[in-house]
Each structure stands twice: as structure tokens, then as C-alpha cells.
């Protein structure tokens, strides 16, 4: 992670700091989900009463947390890669592959942001709620949209960083 902070453009550094904080918030959401599940299991075992809607809370919480990690993984260069194929590649080719990966991430991030926004509007229009707690399902979409916007921003910063690295070579 130290490499990610030391290298890159100013935009890269700014986006990295923002997405790091966002990922930490996602981790806190995940810890809250674990706490609800522990309380539910203990409550069921000891008091014969689980937390109502624990499955629904887990479903939304894990989705929100998982999406919150995506921008950080993009900007920090922590996505899965096949190093065996690039081990002997020159720095130019590595930069080109990084650029292509960033462009793909940008495309997917933009499509996801676009479609999730309209999915949220549909869920809001039809008034869909969860079965037990009656939580409007569009809330989950609303909580994921900032992560997708940050993913798009992180992808743009990655593209700029890759082009900058290619220009130096």
C-alpha cells in the first residue's frame, strides 16, 4: 500500500485518500453486520429469540460494504491480476495493461452507476420493501451509488495515472 501512496498524480493521491476512508466506513458496516449476526445467534440460543430481520440487514449491509471496497481496490491497484503473464513485460507494456484495465473498470463502473440509479428509481416507484422489517429496498441502492461514483472517479484517476506513466517511458 505504501507504493500506492508514494506514486501517481495529485488526483491519484486525493482519490486514494478519499477511497481509503470510504473503505474503512465499509469495514465498519461489515463489523456492524457481524455484530447483528452474533446478537441474533446468541439471542436465538440463549433467549430463543433471534434478531428480527437479521437476514435482511445482513443482505443490505454486506452489499454496501462490498461495493465500498471497489473504489479503493481500483485506485490502489489491488485488483486481481495474472502476474505470470506479465512477469517479463517491459514497463511500457505494464503501463499499457494498467491503462486497459482502468478503461474497463471505468466502463463497468459507469454502466453499474447508470443502471443502479435507474434500478433504485424503479424500486422506489413500485414501493418494494423487505419481508420482515419492511425496509424500502431502494435504500440499499441509495447506499451503493456513492461507492459506484467513487469507482468511476478512481477509474478516471487510474486512467490519468496510467497515461502519465506511459508518457514518462
Automatic annotation (TrEMBL):
InterPro entries hit by this protein: DctQ
Keywords, alphabetical: Cell inner membrane, Cell membrane, Membrane, Transmembrane, Transmembrane helix, Transport
Domain Tripartite ATP-independent periplasmic transporters DctQ component as annotated: residue spans: 34-163
Pfam families in UniProt: DctQ
Superkingdom per UniProt: Bacteria
Residues that span the membrane, as ranges: 21-48, 60-80, 92-118, 138-160
Location relative to the cell: Cell inner membrane; Cell membrane
Membrane topology qualifier: Multi-pass membrane protein
Keyword Repressor on entry: no
Subunit structure and binding partners: The complex comprises the extracytoplasmic solute receptor protein and the two transmembrane proteins.
Function: Part of the tripartite ATP-independent periplasmic (TRAP) transport system.
Record-stated family: Belongs to the TRAP transporter small permease family.
Protein's name according to its UniProt entry: TRAP transporter small permease protein
